What we know:
The complex is a heterodimer of chains A (238) and B (46).
Chain A: H1 6-33, H2 46-74, H3 77-109, H4 117-138, H5 142-156, H6 159-169, H7 189-237
Chain B: H1 2-45
Amino acid sequence: MTFLKEAEVKSQKVLALLTFVTMLCAIYAIFLYAPTEASMGDVQRIFYFHVSSAWICFLAILSVFVYSALFLITGTRKMDIKAAAAAEVGAIFATIVLVTGPLWAKPVWGIWWTWDPRLTSMFVLWLIYMGYIMLRRLIEAPEQRARLSAIFGILGAIDVPIVYMSNRWWRTQHPSPVMAGGQGSGLDPHMKIAFFLSLAAFTFFYFYLWRIRTDLESSQEAVEALQRQLETQRRGTL
Amino acid sequence: MNYLFAAYSAIWILLFGYIFSLSQRQRRVQEDLAQVQERLGQKTRS
């Protein structure tokens, strides 16, 4: 990329390599190392990428929250760009959660979808991501767009604790938490390895995509600024 | 097994689709940059 320093390119390559290696290990562990779950069978293997995607949704909205707050405090454009990039990547992973969830639910529950607290609050989180992206597209003035989307991003993050706690606070169709879920929860040690490898792979992938998206947004802004400057000069000479 | 296949296919389609869209946008920015540089070059020559 034209605007990237050499060190940034190097760190991007390291992230890409880490993603590739951990993703390969995760895929091996999911399909060949982890045992088949007794009651659900092979379809339970959706769990590894489904939960990892949900984790990235939370991480991305946390990034939106932090960088939106930093933008409102400091007014630095870079913070707004980072928040916007995190929201777009988060929206992709939220879509993955909403697509893989029903594909797991249908053979296990016999239904694609139910409006229980966990599923509904997750759907609301997806709507928040979409609302954030649409808001940014609708407002043209950069300053106003950055300020309003920062406020929206901060308010949107309130949904995360609700999604996370929903199957602890209420009785839901969705299974109880398998990690840190109290008595009776937990995973087979082999499944645990596959699960943590998936989490690691998705986390590296998230940081890799976030960086690429941030650099792209910065480059776009720099080119637009140059175009505006040229246009102003052209008008001045007319 | 069909559901498992469908779920993992959907994941990879979404992820590769997003990576493709990022690369397309990156290409557009490069083209815009080349255009701006060309216009700047013309401006300094005149």
